[in-house]
Amino acid sequence: MEVKRTVLVHESDNVLTAFSDFSAGEIVSVQLDTGDIEVELLDDIAFGHKIAVRSIEAGSPIVKYGCTIGKATQEIKIGQWVHTHNVGDDYQEN
């Protein structure tokens, strides 16, 4: 039996990292500082990609490793794939 895993790196993160390929509709169990929750995946998620573990409003930070890694360009629901199609970077050109 294949064991599929996700990792929440820091308590303040609003995204998980997928350590397996997942299909939409699968359920992942997540340990949060507020208690364990189950998240139903709304999208197919490839190994190494991010999954929203909390609702993220458009313009809000994407937090991984306890640090902001970008901002949501649209609302992201719990269980959605978080990637370049719904995240913008915070880098500014000089």
Itemize the secondary structure elements and their pairings.
Blueprint: E1 6-7, E2 15-18, E3 27-32, E4 35-40, E5 50-52, E6 61-64, E7 67-72, E8 81-82, E9 87-88
Antiparallel strand pairs: 1-2, 2-5, 3-4, 5-8, 6-7, 7-9
Description:
The protein is mostly beta strands. It has a single domain (6-88), classed as Archaeosine Trna-guanine Transglycosylase, Chain: A, domain 4. The protein has strands at residues 6-7, 15-18, 27-32, 35-40, 50-52, 61-64, 67-72, 81-82, 87-88. The strands form three sheets. Strands 1-2-5-8 form a four-stranded antiparallel β-sheet, with no helix packed on it. Strand 1 (6-7) and strand 2 (15-18) form a beta hairpin. The chain is globular and about 40 Å long. The termini are far apart.
Rounded Rg: 13 Å
Which structural category do the helix and sheet elements fall into? mainly beta
- Percent range of helical residues: under 10%
Q: End-to-end span in angstroms?
A: 51 Å
- Please state the average pLDDT score: 90
Give the helices and strands as they follow along the chain. Answer: EEEEEEEEE
